[in-house]
Amino acid sequence: MMSVVHRLTAGWLVDHLSFINQCGYEICDSFAYPGNVTLHTSVNSTGDCHGTSTFAATSSSRDGPIPGPGDAIETEGKTAKTRYVFREEFFDVLKPHIAAAPEQQLWQGCSEVSLTEIKANSNREEHQEGTKSGVGDSVASARKKRKRKCVFNQGELDALEYHSKVRKLIWEGTLHLVQEGLKSGFLHRTAAELSCRKNVILGHIGCGLAELCEMAKQFPAVNESDHQTVHVLDDETSIPEQDLLSCVTENSSNCAKIVVLMGQKYLVPPKSSFLLSDISCLQPLLNYKKKYDVIVIDPPWENKSVKRSNRYSHLSSWQIKQIPVPALAAPNCLVVTWVTNRQKHLRFVKDELYPHWSVKTLAEWHWVKITRAGEFVLPLDSLHKKPYEVLVLGRVQEDVKEALRKSEDVLPIPEHKLIVSIPCSLHSHKPPLTVIISEETESSNTTLDL
Predict the structure, then answer these.
(1) Nearest to 8 by CA among 227, 132, 208, 174
(2) Within 13 Å, how many C-alpha atoms sit on residue 338's CB side?
(3) C-alpha 392: how far from its chain's center?
């Protein structure tokens, strides 16, 4: 299945799961099992391949040793291959996280709603959320929340005004794409079709990457003359963490590679490279001396939820501005930045960050999150949690003569598009942009994800 399921004028309906599985997560082993063993195995994994709970494997063989969980062997001459696929249940979003009132549902509501009506919807949503539990001391808390929400603060008013401007585009575009998805069978409206799938309780998926990146700060600064620029992966699986933290790691082969870091397995896709580092230690990436046609940035924006959960550290506006985008960008590089729904962050990207990087803002796109039934995962007019996120697209500007000469070969970026998809239940997994951007620019691009 193609990762872009449908494309319309409004945007794309995307299958994120299909995209991951098309990335070529196939391990090539230079040996064959004895006895002409052929094992056809479906191996499911998360992106970090962590722990036995993240694997589900079945195998069948005639003679010879049977590989353990996580192994799938197809013998072709003297080469054995193991194919990994992402666990499907991480995309089984069957119903909205918060049920929307009928007037906010995609099939019953209206795309044309005034700002006054949106405010009323937001107040109603706050009331429903506050009284959801309906027990003991939460009633007083709900009354308090209800009373406060009669008056919106300036940040909330800014967010409501922005939402009122993009609401119709999001509603109508999503509706058209969802209708196409239902016609093709990619989405399913009826509860009977959805309930036949077994619900799986997802366990905690541990990942030590944050700790490893934190380690990067403790190592001495990288001196360009003293360190190798790139570590090329061959057949080894266990690599000293310091080697990965001090240079770019590259998989130049046509097969995926597994690396083991702090006891955890990680899949590295073919023809890719990565730098495991804190954002403050990017010198190895600069030493790599590679320029990128597309740079996608997903900053850890500061917000109250992040502060409360302590899930990850956030970056200040000043720290984000220090990311050396101009030094990493190829001529006419397309820069894409994910932004939360806080207007403060959106204004910062357009008015401060992009000018600081000599990037001209071209467009604002929206990622709309839906269920398998084609409903918004959250009420569209919810005040704090929206079923969409913003992408700000811009292009690096060069001197005027050079820009005019090269602009003839650059296709314009549409001012507004929607990317509609079922979101991954793992935190902050964004939908694939590679295929979409390549389609819009009609070229294959070297992409950097930060």
Answers:
(1) 174
(2) 19
(3) 15
Secondary structure of 35-69 as H, E, C letters: HHCCCCCCEEECCCCCCHHHCECCCCCCCCCCCCC
For 10-24, give the secondary structure using H, E and C: CEEEECHHHHHHCCC
**How many Cα atoms sit within 13 Å of 333 on the Cβ side?**
27
pLDDT in tens, 59-102: 233 334 334 334 444 444 556 778 888 888 888 888 888 877 77
The order of strands in the sheet holding 4-8 is 4-8, 11-14, 418-421, 359-369, 388-396, 329-339, 292-297, 447-449
Are the C-beta atoms of residues 380 and 166 closer than 8 Å to each other? no
119/164 Cα distance (integer angstroms): 10
pLDDT, tens digit (0-9, with 9 covering 90-100), for 151-178: 788 888 888 889 999 999 999 999 999 9
Q: How crowded is residue 153: how many other Cβ atoms within 10 Å of its Cβ?
A: 9
Number of continuous H segments (helices) and E segments (strands) in the chain: 15, 17
Sign of CA dihedral 190, 193, 195, 199: negative
What is the 3-state secondary structure of 86-102? Answer: ECHHHHCCCCCCCCCCH
By three-state DSSP, how is residue 307 classified?
A: helix
Residue 310 CB: number of other CB atoms within 10 A?
Answer: 7
Q: Which residues, including other chains, have CB under 8 Å from residue 433's CB and lie 6 or more apart?
A: 294, 296, 336, 391, 419, 447
Q: How far is CA 296 from the centre of its chain?
A: 10
Tokens encoding 388: 């969409």
Give exposure, 41-61, as e/b (b: 16+ Cβ within 10 Å): bebbbbbbbbeeebbbbebeb
The reported pTM is 0.80
Q: Which two tokens stand for residue 107?
A: 């099939």
pLDDT digits (tens, 9 = 90+) for 183-225: 999 998 874 455 555 445 555 565 666 676 676 666 666 555 5
Q: Cα angle vertex 244, ends 241, 247, to 5°?
A: 145
- Which amino acid, one-letter code, is at 40? H
| Inter-CA distances, 79 with 26, 36, 74, Å | 12, 12, 8
Residues in the chain: 450
CB atoms within 10 A of CB 315: 17
**How far apart are alpha carbons 257 and 250 in whole angstroms?**
10
Outline where 290-375 has alpha helix (H).
304-309, 317-321, 325-328, 343-348, 354-356
